[in-house]
């Protein structure tokens, strides 16, 4: 299991850019608990691994839904 020294944290703006959503959507995901985050003062930092996990968990194969 990687330690905190190996962890990479992203800002809400960076997460929004990666996920191609608004910053408000990222805040909603964080507040609902769907996206884990660490609070530093008044701002949030999201582990990069959590962003990758969230994006891979919501991938849908549209060719099978027809």
TrEMBL record:
What Pfam family does this protein match (any one)?
HTH_17
The regions listed as transmembrane in this protein's record are: none
Query: Where is the Helix-turn-helix domain positioned along the sequence?
Result: 9-56
A GO molecular function for this record? DNA binding
Q: Which InterPro entries match?
A: DNA-bd_dom_put_sf, HTH_17, SinI_DNA-bd
The name this protein goes by in its record:
Helix-turn-helix domain-containing protein
**Its domain of life?**
Bacteria
């Amino acid at each position: 299991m990687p330690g905190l020294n190996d962890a990479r944290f992203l800002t809400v703006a960076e997460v929004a850019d990666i996920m191609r959503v608004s910053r408000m959507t990222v805040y909603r995901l964080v507040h609902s608990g769907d996206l884990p985050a660490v609070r530093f003062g008044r701002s949030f930092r999201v582990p990069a691994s959590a962003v990758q996990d969230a994006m891979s968990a919501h991938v849908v194969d549209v060719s099978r839904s027809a």
